Amino acid sequence: MNAIEPDRLPGQLAGSGICIRTGPFVSRIQSRLSAVAAGLALLYPDYPLADPDGFTDFQVRLYTPNPLRRWWRPQVQFAMDGRIPFKPLPLSQAYPLLEWGLNWCITSHMHHYLLIHSAVVERNGLGVILPGEPGAGKSTLCAALMLRGWRLLSDEMAVIDLDSLELIPVVRPVSLKNASIEVIRRFASEAVISPPALDTLKGTVAHLRVPRASIERMDEPARAGAIVFPRYRSDAVPAQAAPETPGRTLLRIAQNTFNYSLLGERAFHALTAVVQASRCHDLAYAELEEAIAWFDRLSGEADG
Amino acid sequence: MAESCLPLLVQVLRAPATAAVLEAPDWDRLIRQARHANLLGRLAHRVADVCDMAALPPPVQRHLDSARNFAAAHARVVHWEVNRIRRALAPLEVPVILLKGAAYLLSGSPVAVGRVFSDVDILVPRARLDAVEESLYWAGWLTTHHDAYDQRYYRQWMHELPPLRHVRRKTVLDVHHNILPETARLHPDPEKLIAAAECIDAPDLHVLSTEDRILHSATHLFHDGEFEHGLRDLVDLDGLIREAAGAEARFWERLPARADELQLSRPLAYALRYCREILGTPVPEAMRQWTDRALPGRVTRGLMDALMARALRPPHPSCEDAFTAPARWLLYVRGHALRMPPHLLLPHLLRKAVRSEE
Amino acid sequence: MSDRRWQVCGRAGLAWVDWGGEVAIYHRGSGDTHLLDPLAAELLRALESGPRSDADLVSLLSELVSPEPERPPQALAETILGELKRLNIIELIES
Amino acid sequence: MATEKDIENKENQIVESDSGVVAGIESRRRLLKGAALTPVLLSLTSRPVLGAECTISGFMSGNVSDHGHDDCACGFTPGAWKTPYVGDGNWNHTPFDPGTCKNQGQGQCNNYNGDGTPFFGPSTFSGSDPHYAGKTLMQVLWLSGNQDPHQFGAHIVAALLNAYAIPGYGMSPADVQAIYANVDANGGAAGGYYMGNNGKMLTVEQVVAFIQSTLCAYQ
Lengths: 304, 358, 95, 219
Known about the structure:
InterPro entries (chain C): PqqD-rel_X (IPR027599)
Protein name (chain C): HPr-rel-A system PqqD family peptide chaperone
Distance between the termini of chain C: 15 Å
CATH topology of chain C: Outer Surface Protein A, domain 3
Number of domains of chain B: 1
Structural class of chain B: alpha/beta
Radius of gyration of chain C: 13 Å
Structural class of chain C: alpha+beta
Oligomer: heterotetramer
Number of helices of chain B: 16
Strand order of the largest sheet of chain B: 3-4-5-2-1-7-6
Largest sheet of chain B: 7 strands, mixed
Pfam families (chain B): NTP_transf_5
Organism (chain B): Thiohalobacter thiocyanaticus
Order of helices and strands of chain C: EEEEHEHHE
Order of helices and strands of chain B: HHHHEHEHEHEEHEEHHHHHHHH
Protein name (chain B): Nucleotidyltransferase family protein
């Protein structure tokens, strides 16, 4: 992306659009909105661009739906190839809407892969799936691990190839919500975080730039070796990890899989294989450092 | 501007082998047209039958494979829905006649391969409608339209109950007692349809006869005027006609005769005309006099050709021009006009316009 | 419990994964997934090979269960069959 | 047009059986203690792939899908309507009054006075079943054991409240009232039945199971 000089970015974005590659997917993004241009410039400088005349998976546009409201509570609308899946949002949420929209593009159209609502990180060859049960604090933990040197494959979805059962990286900025924005700012002052968007349906939302190391390895799949259900609990001092049975892990992770029902029996057998190849734990934590230490031991044991 | 000749999607559906030589930008447009027309699953299977998928660009393979998985999920759901419907209705010992997509799937027709479905349609004898509705109710299929006007619209004027939705599976079921509304100008006799229905799984599961299936599909498209799935329905028709012409002796004599018998000659004539023109469906020359007789005069025919040429294209920006939206709207009004007498039509259209603004 | 008979719903059958203490099944017809207790799994495995009457299932349970079980096989069968029926995994064969 | 489904994981929470002794067996043939109180430990019902767009993709995309109408909503259970202070069953979304609390525990109430909307009345139910005569809707919800056979009263009240409070609930108030009137005229809650016009008869237990199928917890 840094092949485009910063001052030419808004022009190209408003014109034929910018084709960004994130793992196997190419998205053509078009928008005249300054917030989108600023967000991309801040969070996507290291991403590879794709040939605009080549094949693009998703053609995405963000625009103000009714020009009459340009000054009175202006709005932003997301469209994919002319299809509008969401209601318009306040203009201040333009950049988060781009990220949510790109997630929707994948989870609604890419049923070639098994898509689990989870974060995925890797170290020393150990791929770890962190299923995102609501309110679990998965993104905070995933961001912290990434900033401590773990490789990020994705913060929102595990993408599993149904034949090889490999974890396919779809590296994108990490979404942080409400308190975890401050937590990560204090955790790593050098972290690059987009300006927060206020009172979205999920409260305050901001996105964290992914270190170059993870982006450079975005074409390198990983193998799952652990499934950890994180749970932030203020009273979990020290952090407590409890093993979870394979059967219950299968059902819990299936419930978090976007296209489990759609892929049917293939998803049942694929998840079973992933569960059987992984150590499965619940991890309750209050202190990020304790959680990270536990993960380091987990990945340390991997190559021990 | 729209392509002057046939849209890319139609060209590839007519000659799937050409997919092997498509370049990336063509694939990009083709997949988007197919997705908007709800034909991506069909396209994927047609291409897979004649091309070496592994030779296609990897991202293209992913989209086509995804579409086949999506269609396979629909097929599983329809099979299960039909199983549960038969279970709920078994005590009534009433014939359950599957219509449209569910019929093609359960009868194993190639038309169903890669097809997606939005709901399940069944036809039951009118005399048993109340008993069927009650049995479905207690099995969890509840009506979605509590509004009194909607109830009357369906029960008095239409040929079906208000759509039912299953309370747990959220699937939608349409229960018909005819293939055209009571108030329509054409009056096919449901008893004849039921009498000719073929049993595909004893004792209760039936589908319409081959000719009646084609006539129903043609009527649904060219009489009801719902062109949101125009091209998909035309692709169904093309598939049904090719399948039947290949399998049934004297098919081209029985089809027009049955159409005349059921007063459905005009919709069939339109179907044959546009299937041949757009999808290249093989229709023997001998049928030309019959279709000429059944079609309206040259002026109306010219207007319909202009409207249909636009309405039957993929609903995608790359295939539309300034006249596409007006053409679809005119056909929408025509569809309603054919279904409802004038004194009902105007208030109904007004009501729908107001409702969609809410 | 008359001579009524049970069968698995639909003809598509089940996919199994047995972890000893827990058994996971995928119902090919409904697309539902369940985690079963081993006893329930045994009953279901029997039904998958063909329709069974209540009596067959109760005797199967009494073979598997210790001589003086906490709950008689009769009550056990009723609990298990009731739950499997509520989840649309099995159904009574309409006479 | 059948858009590809995006999935809402709130839609089908895992129905987790509560505590129960699981008879673990090492080898298949070892004799079991036979105490399998929970035959099915966890269940995941298939999410809608076809038909109504019921899933609101809010959980991830932070937004309500454009056809976010929720016309396949499941209703609250009798338990939820019994304890409005817990927050689920909100009586202000219904035209009925729960009545005042008899003994105000700390913020909780498990006994209501007779000043709420009566069970029998023009806008509620018509009939004469003695189990519910003279009681308010809320009092019927709090009936226990054989005071309310098969919990029929509690479930029919919950269904009526859902019909008003939940947009897109499967049944309209008229549907619920018709079911009650039919059972009341055919023997009532204890030993009565529902007589369908297709000649089919349903026991009160089957009617309660039907109502449960429209409630969130039993989906």
